[in-house]
Design brief:
Length: 227
């Protein structure tokens, strides 16, 4: 069995270094190898101090840095890899400045697929009692801003696929005129991402065919079977 790998980052006061040593020992006993390169890790753990504001900000910086590094490495190792993520906006304490930083990260990273959820208070949770709660109107506006930006990114990425050839797994019939079949590429997850509508002879679900992408919109692709 392949040994699991963990990358541990310690920020904040000297006490955190002691805590990190304890965490590293627990991880080692649990079968993890502690490694210096985050992009090779199965688990990334950032240990910081939530009572010291600079330490909190430093941990956020570190998360953005590590995430960028991992994404760059993934795209280098697997050209054309499709990346997706989900976000929550409106968590208590999310200032306009923090939200704008998140928005800039999305513009820079250009995820292939992205979902956005609004933070929702759950009775009995610590987050529900935190100060600086974000209003429902503000949460809705922030979600809409990100989804609008992502729709532009998604459209541009889908348009770049026009003219390329892909394997498409047929999932059933289509209700789109001129495209009799509906399926998905490897980059499209079922029930989450868009679908690919195909001009093709009728196929049974599960059948895989080669197709050329002929057009695209924000979320769906249109293709024609290559015979």
């Amino acid at each position: 069995m392949k040994q699991k790998k963990a990358h541990l980052v310690s920020l904040g006061c000297p006490k955190n270094l002691i805590d990190s040593e304890v965490i590293a020992a627990i991880l080692s006993r649990g079968g993890y190898e502690i490694i210096p390169r985050p992009e090779e890790a199965d688990l990334i753990l950032i240990n910081t101090c939530t009572f010291v504001l600079p330490a909190k900000e430093e941990s956020i910086d570190e998360i953005f840095y590590i995430t960028r590094d991992i994404i760059r490495e993934a795209r280098k190792i697997i050209p054309g890899v499709a990346l997706r993520t989900s976000l929550i906006v409106g968590f208590p304490g999310e200032t306009p400045e923090k939200f704008n930083r998140l928005l800039e990260f999305i513009k820079e990273t250009r995820f292939d697929h992205l979902g956005v959820f609004k933070y929702s208070q759950e009775e009995g949770t610590k987050a529900a009692e935190l100060p600086f709660q974000v209003s429902e109107e503000e949460k809705e506006e922030r979600r809409n801003i990100i989804m609008e930006e992502q729709s532009i990114i998604s459209y541009e990425i889908n348009q770049s696929l026009t003219g390329s050839v892909h394997e498409i797994m047929i999932e059933g019939k289509s209700d789109i005129p001129g495209h009799t079949q509906a399926g998905r590429l490897r980059r499209q997850s079922p029930d989450i991402d868009g679908v690919t509508y195909v001009k093709a002879q009728e196929k049974t679900p599960g059948h895989i065919i080669n197709c050329m992408i002929t057009s695209a919109d924000e979320y769906d692709l249109y293709a024609e079977e290559i015979i």
